[in-house]
Amino acid sequence: MDTLSLLDDKLDVLLKSYQAKEMEIVRLRATIEGQNKAIQRLNKKVAAMDSNMVSVNMDSAGITEEEKENMNRQLDGVIAEIDKILITLND
Question: How far apart are CA 74 and CA 78, in angstroms?
């Protein structure tokens, strides 16, 4: 009987471990989904800024140097956010 009891205890430990892993997988999938949505949002933002930069380049005479620097800072910020999300995805 001791062997069956020991086997039952080990099985309980394994089942609890399995359930914990399943919950962790669900949590990680939700995190990845959220990060993918954030990446898509940021990619859209970059695309919009990129199209704005094309417009700016076509008519650069009407834009001050300060406005150009501001746009570059905004674009750098968006790219930095994307980089952070990609780094967290790789972890």
Answer: 6
60: which DSSP letter? G
Indicate the average pLDDT of the chain: 85
Q: What pLDDT does residue 17 have?
A: 96
Residue 46 contacts residue 81 (beta carbons within 8 Å): no
Given a cut of 50, the residues of the chain with pLDDT beneath it are none
In the block, tokens 């406005």 appear at 67
Q: Give the chain's end-to-end CA distance (angstroms, integer).
A: 46
Is 68 in contact with 56 (CB distance < 8 Å)?
yes
Continuous H helices in the chain:
2-58, 65-90
Neighbours of 79 (CB within 10 A): 13
Range of the domain at 43: 2-90
Q: Give pTM, 2 decimals.
A: 0.53
